[in-house]
Amino acid sequence: MNTLKKRQAHFFLFCLFIAAWPLFAQPKVSLSEPNFTEFKSADGYPQGIVTDIHQDKLGFIWIATADGLFRFDGYNFKEYRTSIEDKNTIPSNTITQVLSDKADNIWISTEGNGLSQLNRKTGQFKHYYARKENPGTIPDNNIWNLCLDQNGRIWAGSRSNGLFSLDPQTDSIRQFLTLIDDQNSLWSNQITAICQLSSGLLWVGTAKGINLVNPKQEK
Predict the structure, then answer these.
(1) Residue 196 CB partners (closer than 8 Å, separation 6+)
(2) Is residue 54 packed enough to be buried (19+ CB in 10 Å), middle (13-18) or exposed (0-12)?
(3) What's the pLDDT tens digit per position in 176-205?
(4) Cα(200)–Cα(198) distance, rounded to whole angstroms?
(5) Given pLDDT bands bounded at 50, 70 and 90, which one contains residue 117?
(6) Of the candidates 163, 192, 200, which has an alpha carbon nearest to the alpha carbon of residue 179?
(7) What is the 3-state secondary structure (H, E, C) of the chain?
(8) Dihedral sign computed on CA atoms, order 208, 190, 212, 104
(9) What mean pLDDT, rounded, does the chain reach?
(10) 64 close to 95: Cβ distance less than 8 angstroms
(11) Which pLDDT tens digit goes with each residue over 132-175?
(12) How far apart are CA 128 and CA 171, in angstroms?
């Protein structure tokens, strides 16, 4: 075979390889259906609306519902419900969101009964309520969403009283509201979502648009 024919043969094999490469490069696609496991009241979990799900650093699954808070260890459910006779319970069965902080304490927001922290070491609940006669309290008992920032502060979005931050170390609270004369304020006092980026900035969703908040500058 002369040099020209060799080059033609090599070129043909190269083109064939390029044409066939996508067939080999495609990831394997599983045609099997996903497996869904159903939990019923007999398993210790009531049938109801689930509002949020969170996994803590220990691996426990925390489930916020309209009928209480539940912890799942992979085998069993433990329920937390409000009780008039016991102050060391959740303040309301209507839980809107759940998260864990750096100390692995559990925080829950509620519809109508503020914010609460479950201390994992002591098993005690600490409640934060809005009280008009005390300006140092949280601004609203109707809290829709929570976010833990990189400095360990809890950010909470309320139904009608804006955004506020809470420092668990000092219990200091700072509120952020929409101001007519301030273009750098929130678009709306109704907060619908909070998310922190890896840069540390907070995206805050409101009823009228999105705000970007710098927690370091708090503006």
Answers:
(1) 147, 148, 149, 150, 155, 202, 203, 215
(2) middle
(3) 998 888 878 899 999 999 999 999 899 999
(4) 5
(5) very high
(6) 163
(7) CCHHHHHHHHHHHHHHHHHHHHHHHCCCCCCCCCCCCCCCHHHCCCCCCEEEEEECCCCCEEEEECCEEEEECCCCEEEECCCCCCCCCCCCCCEEEEEECCCCCEEEEEECCCEEEECCCCCCEEEECCCCCCCCCCCCCEEEEEEECCCCCEEEEECCCCEEEEECCCCEEEEECCCCCCCCCCCCCCEEEEEECCCCCEEEEECCEEEEECCCCCC
(8) negative
(9) 85
(10) yes
(11) 888 889 999 999 999 999 999 999 999 999 999 999 999 999 99
(12) 9
Average pLDDT over residues 3-25: 48
Tokens 């890896």 sit on residue: 198
Check residue 7 and give its pLDDT.
Answer: 47
Sheet holding 125-128, edge to edge: 95-100, 106-110, 115-118, 125-128
Give the number of C-alpha atoms closer than 13 A to the C-alpha of residue 172, restricted to the C-beta side: 6
